[in-house]
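Problem 12. The chain below contains 251 residues. Write out its predicted structure in token notation.
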Amino acid sequence: MSCESKNPESRRDFLKLGGLIGLGTAAAYALPAVPKLLADINSENKDKKIPEWRLLIDVSKCQSGCDDCVTACHKENNVNPDLRWIRKATITKDLGDKKITVNAPLLCNQCDHPPCALVCPVEATFVRPDKVVDVDKHRCIGCRYCVIGCPYDVRVFNFTENPKGLSDEGVNPLHPKRMHGVAESCNFCAHRLDENKEPACVVSCKSGAMTFGNINDPDSKVSVALRDVKSIPKGLREDLGTKPKVLYLGL
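Solution.
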């Protein structure tokens, strides 16, 4: 059975991107200053009724040994802990005269140009109107192309029934159970977004390291936070041109 993409242009674009990554010659994607960043985003989405989400993570506030965001994510979305929709990383930065260590949550970056969606042969990975990247578990055939295509190592494959070992009382009824053989990843708690609620990881963060909101709303928490920052937030591997919606301060 053929697994060719239905969109040859998109497939060629992804293959070109993969070749550039492999050669280490991906064109640099320069992040503009914060005001221009906000202006560009707003100009791209003319319909302001459709939200466009951003997650800002200040690593200087992320506390070592705290896994509240991980626990909240897995409980809210009925995720087996070994799948790690979100995980904490310890990063050492070499500043020349000294080294500093910071903690940072790593999760799906909700790319504007998601490689996982480009390589899916059955369009199980899709982009919602609010640009949230999600997976149709009924359509997914388990080929794992998206797992391979994700440059951030945050798309996972479920080898066992999900959630494993949880009683019916411990399962969140608002998020469907998944059978084995499907790919999945963080979707910003899309079911909560549909109810005008923040993602579970953001709500659980007591240190204030996570700020979330609609970038098209100038009064949202994330818009206000981006106007107040003194340094430019950055996404991971911006050189790949994926335009991640998760931005980090202090990395």
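Discussion. The helical segments are 8-23, 34-44, 68-76, 115-119, 145-149, 190-193, 200-204, 221-228. Students who got a different answer should revisit the alignment rule from Section 12.3.
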